[in-house]
Specification:
This protein is α+β, with helices and mostly antiparallel strands and 133 residues long. The protein has 4 helices and 5 strands, in the order H-E-E-H-H-E-E-E-H. It has one domain: Beta-Lactamase (2-Layer Sandwich), CATH 3.30.450.30. The protein has a 5-stranded antiparallel sheet with strand order 2-1-5-4-3, with helices on both faces. A hairpin with a 2-residue loop joins strand 3 and strand 4. This is Roadblock/LC7 domain protein.
């Protein structure tokens, strides 16, 4: 399956999904995106610029250091692999691609979406997207 088809399938699979994007964190570029409307794609483009700080920023590093000091020990995989944000009218789910640690898939959903279903379906879609890369 091609990347654009995998992204489109994810858009159709994840409940109340408005847009899905495949983002390169090193550049902040959207490598592929699909959306229901130009407005939802605009949200995705805006978010893609700041994604690197979300996963690799100083705040994440400080949080991991606190976990290590609290007795969690050394953290094998630095950085978060999944971040979910509730923001006004939107629910954002960011999943780091397992095989491409510098890439993130972003799902933008309506704020009233069921968070559990969104997270479950987005995790299921991540595998198909990663296979398409």
């Amino acid at each position: 399956m091609a990347l654009d088809a995998a992204i489109k399938s994810a858009l159709d699979t994840v409940p109340d999904c408005l847009a899905v994007g495949y983002i390169d964190m090193n550049t902040g570029m959207l490598l592929e995106m699909q959306g229901e409307s130009p407005a939802s794609v605009d949200v995705l483009e805006t978010v893609s610029i700041a994604i690197s700080n979300l996963f690799q920023g100083h705040g994440v590093q400080a949080f991991e250091k606190l976990l290590a000091e609290a007795g969690d020990g050394a953290i094998d995989n630095a950085g978060f692999s999944e971040v979910t944000i509730f923001s006004g009218d939107h629910l954002f789910v960011f999943l780091k691609a397992r095989d491409y640690q510098e890439h993130v898939v972003c799902f933008v959903c309506r704020g009233g979406a069921n968070p559990g279903m969104v997270m479950a379906k987005s995790q299921m879609s991540l595998g198909k997207i990663a296979e398409a890369v």
